[in-house]
Amino acid sequence: MVRGDKNLPLGGGPDTLRAIYGRPHENGTLAGVAGDCFFQFVEWDRDGKLQAWAINQFGSNPGNPDSPHHTDQAPLFAEEKLRKVPFSRDEVLANAKQTYRPGER
Predict the structure, then answer these.
(1) I need a surface site. Which of 47, 64, 77, 85 has the fewest CB within 10 A?
(2) Which helix (H) or strand (E) holds 38?
(3) How many CA atoms lie within 13 A of 94 on its CB side?
(4) Is residue 102 part of a domain?
């Protein structure tokens, strides 16, 4: 999968759970140009505590090549790994890059 400056090997193809469509690249590899893939797993323990993991093949900002999130999940996706999802308010605030209220920006 070629995404920005990343060139990563991965499994998958059209019509699979890891759907990705490729176009021949000039160097002989296939450049991933389209696809649809989002996985999320949520676990409840016996006490009701939640944990979640997820992955999106293109990261969370696929439309903006200048964003730090344009390719941030691609390496994990290529390695068939998941990222931890902050689930509680404390986890979300601890991982937030910025916080604001609607209309403040």
Answers:
(1) 47
(2) strand 38-44
(3) 7
(4) no
The DSSP bridge partners found for residue 19 are 36
Residue environment code for 71-94, b if the CB has 16+ CB neighbours within 10 A, otherwise e = bbbbebbbeeebeebeeeeeeeee
Spatial CB neighbours of 59, under 8 Å, sequence gap ≥ 6: 3, 67, 69, 70, 71, 72, 73, 74
Identity of residue 66: D
Structural domain count, the chain: 1
Q: What is the pTM of this model?
A: 0.67
Q: Which residues, in sequence order, are bridge partners of residue 50?
A: 44
Is 104 part of a structural domain of the chain?
A: no
User: pLDDT digits over 29-88, tens only?
Assistant: 888 777 777 889 999 999 998 899 999 876 666 678 888 888 888 889 889 899 999 988
For residue 32, being part of any structural domain is answered with: yes
Domain of 45 in residue numbering reads as 2-95
